[in-house]
Specification:
four-stranded antiparallel sheet; 38% helix; Hypothetical upf0131 protein ytfp; 3 domains; Alpha-Beta Plaits; GGCT-like; GGCT-like_sf; 18% strand; three-stranded antiparallel sheet; AIG2-like_dom; Gamma-glutamylcyclotransferase AIG2-like domain-containing protein
């Protein structure tokens, strides 16, 4: 298709209101796929302009037509449903251990709505033990919504749960990815400590009653900064207050180049000294701002 023909096709798609009752398919797609009217229109236009990955034959449609029309589908919406179902089947194939670790390290905000309007419903769908935190957010119109945090594996579990549900298979949850530095401090070892293998006997806790410090939710807590976070202008902009630094140095690590950035990694020689700044992080809110700044590329 030439550029002119493609533009003409797009114009025709946008002008659907002149050739058919566009409100009817928009309403249908809203109901079936759990999206807003503008989102439904976008999906319809993109689907009509894109090469069909899956085409429902006349004989197949005649076999399922009565049932699907009772469920609210027409042939086009049913083809779209089958296409996205095929995509989900492909993505749900076995994943490697490396992919699993990557998914566990990613964080999403899930909007509490529809069949996932409560924390209990999300816990059931994702097969989670519990949800630790919910947050409130407002859109540009001032309408508030509740969100909870899930990781990439839990996101996949929720999508699989919905796709296999006879009732909720057409609902599309709202996920917003957030890139935040990972913080998973162990409760029964000194892991992760820079330059120290916590599995070695000499680095293990002496007894079960020992509590490694700092704890996961302990505040205030000291941080060692290097690079841009050791610059007062950067930290002041992030936290909204003038930072108080203390000169500091650490052993067991070495600074290495990572593209245009620096990364503090374990020092195999265990002799290197890195100079930087110590800063007392006062609260979880301040820590969250720092973790968002560093993104999931880093770990605390």
């Amino acid at each position: 298709m030439s550029l002119v023909e493609e533009l003409e096709a797009m114009a025709n798609a946008v002008c659907l209101a002149e050739t058919e009752e566009i409100d009817n398919p928009i309403y249908r797609w809203q109901s079936l796929f759990g999206c807003s009217a503008p989102e439904a229109l976008d999906k319809i236009i993109i689907f009509r302009l894109s090469p069909r990955e899956l085409i429902i034959s006349d004989s197949h449609w005649e076999m399922v037509r009565d049932q699907k029309e009772q469920e609210g589908f027409d042939r086009e919406a049913y083809e779209y449903f089958c296409t996205i179902a095929a995509h989900k089947s492909h993505h749900s194939s076995a994943i490697t251990e490396e992919e699993k670790q990557r998914l566990q390290a990613t964080t999403f905000l899930l909007k509490l709505e529809g069949p996932l309007q409560s924390v209990d419903a999300v816990v059931q769908a994702a097969n989670m033990a519990a949800i630790q935190e919910t947050v409130m957010a407002s859109d540009s119109l001032g309408q508030s919504s509740s969100f909870c945090k899930v990781n990439g594996l839990e996101k996949m579990a929720i999508e699989t749960f919905l796709s296999e549900s006879n009732i909720h298979s057409v609902f599309r949850p709202t996920f917003i990815r957030i890139s935040v530095a990972r913080k998973e401090l162990s409760t029964n070892s000194i892991y992760p400590t820079l330059g120290v293998d916590s599995t070695m006997p000499q680095h293990r806790l002496s007894n079960d009653t020992d509590n490694p410090q700092p704890a996961q939710g302990e505040y205030p807590v000291w941080y060692f900064f290097y690079g841009t976070l050791a610059e007062s202008e950067t930290l002041a902009e992030l936290l909204g207050t003038e930072p108080i630094y203390h000169d500091a140095k650490i052993r067991g690590g070495v600074l290495e180049s990572w593209g245009n950035y620096k990364a503090l990694v374990n020092d195999p020689s265990e002799r290197n000294v890195v100079h930087g700044k110590a800063f007392l992080v006062a609260s979880e809110e301040d820590e969250e701002a720092l973790r968002l700044y560093e993104t999931e590329a880093y770990e605390i």
